[in-house]
Amino acid sequence: MEISDLQIIIPDPAWGSNLANIILDLEKLRSKKLTGEVPPHIFSQLKDIFQILETLGSARIEGNNTTLSEYVENIIENKMKQDESQKEVFNLEAAINFIEGNTDEKTTLNRAYISELHKIITADLTPPPNGEGSKNPGGLRTHNVQIRKANHIPPDYAILRDYFDAFVDFINHPFREQYQLLMVALAHHRFAYIHPFDNGNGRMARLLNYALLIKLGFRVKNGRIINPSSVFYTDRDKYYDMLAKADSLQSEDLLAWAEYFLLGLKNEIEKIDSLLSPDYVKDKILLPALMFAVDRKNITDQEFRVLKYVVQKNDMIIKSEELEQLGVKNSVQKSRIIAKLRDKKIIHALKEGGRIYTITFVNNYLLRGVISSLTDEGFVSDFLNKN
Ligand SMILES: Nc1ncnc2c1ncn2[C@@H]1O[C@H](COP(=O)(O)OP(=O)(O)O)[C@@H](O)[C@H]1O
Ligand SMILES: [Mg+2]
Predict the structure, then answer these.
(1) Pocket probe mutation, ligand 1, options 243, 249, 253, 257, max atoms within 8 Å of Cβ
(2) Average of pLDDT values for 323-352?
(3) To pair with 197 at 20 to 30 A between CA atoms, which of 50, 119, 142, 319?
């Protein structure tokens, strides 16, 4: 009997196998209480930076050659969206925002949702074969395709709708808990296998993983930061090899894919969990970033002292009165110092027009130092900077 490749069946891993153990570990992380006390105004900026790594990584897997350093400099100089490859990364960021704004545990990842995501990632890009856009944004492909460097031939376009619908049913099926992570892993491969769009299938597969993890309660939205693409970009050849192996749809190959995927995810979540610790964020990320900036004279000694004061406080905020503690007595001078930092956009008011400020490091030269800290801490793959 031949099993139709229309159905998506989750094979059972052996109890006691590596894969079963990885799933158990991930389940602990899913239900783990997040005790992070990193102030939300700091956490959200770190999250934005991880989003940069994520989107750039996802674009680079498919041959986009913008390096992280170039991208960071463009952010600092506010020169975004100039060429197609930057635009592609920008679109991926918009897609992540769409997912975070439209996904919770009750969301159905239906046709409309997937279609919208595809429109976002391909917006204003040149269609294939010359660019990373689409001839039919948001719609299924209307011709047959081949996957570059792969032997597998995706389903004929005439019967694609059935495959796509089976896929949508699969990712929305109320699986029991022990099958949910396997579903996420298999969904990635199956989406790429079906290749429903004329282009953007890899980007979509990775974005759908992110959406599914949010839906399954991995707290990607509010608590923990997650970067599922870095599972793949640490070794692109391995990623393609594992996908190709799974194309057989044999249980053992699908399970091998799931193990590869879920182990990568587990390592990623564990690594990123450290960013929930205020001391870690202060001592390993922000203080070294400030040192980096003052050493390179991106900030003055006085700015350094103020910012250092801010990040050493538990709440990481400052009011101008507090400059007293840094030896500034005169209140006019206090206001002037604050105004200058604000104009340089290295601090911002917590509330529009408010008088309580916090450090800003996502869109100015402090970003260089933060990226350097993150690199030292092993969060930034070399892959993001290779030419
Ligand atoms: N053997 C394979 N089986 C299934 N999918 C594959 C295979 N090899 C590569 N892929 C997927 O195809 C993607 C490339 O397809 P494409 O539509 O061009 O996506 P994108 O435009 O996002 O790069 C890869 O990122 C990968 O996810
Ligand atoms: Mg492509």
Answers:
(1) 243
(2) 93
(3) 50
